Amino acid sequence: MGRIGDVVFKTFTASAGVCTLYLLTVFSYNVYQGLSWHKAQSKMEKKESEE
């Protein structure tokens, strides 16, 4: 019974690690997209104000 518990725990821990890496990657990508969007908006506003 102890071996089954070890396997279940290791599987759960590995799954939690993969999930954490996935969420970190998605979060980083979204932050990058948000900053890029904000930079593009700022350029557009600056260009419009010059005209």
Considering the chains and any ligands shown, give keywords for the structure:
rod-shaped, mainly alpha, 51 residues
Description:
It contains 1 helix and no strands. The relative contact order is 0.07. It has one helix at residues 2-50. With 51 residues, it is mainly α. The model has no long low-confidence stretch (mean pLDDT 92). It has one domain. Keywords: Membrane, Transmembrane, Transmembrane helix. The chain crosses the membrane at residues 12-32.
> Biggest β-sheet: count, sense, barrel?
none
Number of strands: 0
Q: Note the beta-strand portion.
A: under 5%
Which residues sit in consecutive blocks of at least 5 with pLDDT less than 50? Answer: none
Structural class: mainly alpha
Question: How many separate helices?
Answer: 1
Mean pLDDT: 92
One letter per element, helices H and strands E, the order comes to H
Q: Oligomeric status of the shown chains?
A: single chain
Radius of gyration, in Å, reads: 22 Å
Distance between the termini: 75 Å
Give the helix proportion (percent range): over 70%
User: Looking at the structure, what is the overall shape?
Assistant: rod-shaped
Domains (count): 1
Quick structural summary:
This protein has about 50 residues and is mostly helical.
What's the structural blueprint in terms of helices and strands?
Blueprint (H helix, E strand, L loop, with lengths): L1 H49 L1
